[in-house]
From TrEMBL:
Cross-referenced PROSITE patterns: VOC
InterPro entries, sorted: Anthracycline_SecMetBiosynth, Glyas_Bleomycin-R_OHBP_Dase, Glyoxalase_6, VOC_core
Protein name: VOC family protein
Residues annotated as signal peptide: none
Family annotation (Pfam families): Glyoxalase_6
Top-level division of the source organism's lineage: Bacteria
Taxon lineage: Bacteria, Bacillati, Actinomycetota, Actinomycetes, Kitasatosporales
Boundaries of every VOC domain copy: 23-137, 151-266
Organism of origin: Streptomyces longisporoflavus
Amino acid sequence: MTEAWGPTGQRDDLRAVRRTPGTPTWVSLMAHGLAATREFYGALFGWEFRPGPEQLGPYVRALLDGHEVAGIGQLPPDHHLPIAWTPYLASDDVDMTAEAVRHCCGTIGVGPLDAGSAGRMAIAVDPGGAVFGIWQAAEHAGAALVGVPGAVAWNELVTQETAGVVKFYQAVFGYTEEAPASADFDHVTLQVDGRPVASIHGVGQALPRDRGAHWMTHFEVADVDKSVERVIELGGRLVKPARESAHGRMATVADPEGAVFTLVRSAF
């Protein structure tokens, strides 16, 4: 799961690779209660916060040991959108990427627009209905720390089937794909410059009806079971119990507002 990252948790060529089109470069959560959400994730992951661009409303960047790792914003009171973590995929030109999304039967829900001096962004929806962000970096290149406890470890698209949606992401971002190990497992790894950066998992009829296709953010933790207990203590809930996988031990949980994410202790 963490093949794309160096052994220290930071890329050896962090800045250059992060800007390569298609590379997941940031994750962001838009919640109704910014203060309560900050308190939850601060207690769970040890995050501290500082202000970020507020073009879409109040927004903070989460820091782990002084390194930026994620963003949390506040939705306007009249917005009743599903609360979910959203990955941002790098682009050299967000306007051109947005046009490519439309040309390939996706839609653009927000933007493109400038996020102050940090960069330029858009929010898109793929043909299967999954929401993702597009980020053209300026002063803000993205996450400065990954693959260590409290930071993002991986992003995976959960959808009904991979065949059609893989073609969409390849056309928009130029990904190459790594074939699944088994023909019975509908799973594709997306690569940038020969490096795995994300994956797509087709789950068929097991796709949650209340969520539909969605990107799942995996956060690295030192101990999955203890982190699950902490989530529950803080008012979150368990979605899928802890289990062993080829990538390590993992469990799926939700924060108090319902944002679903996965806790993982990667098998390095």
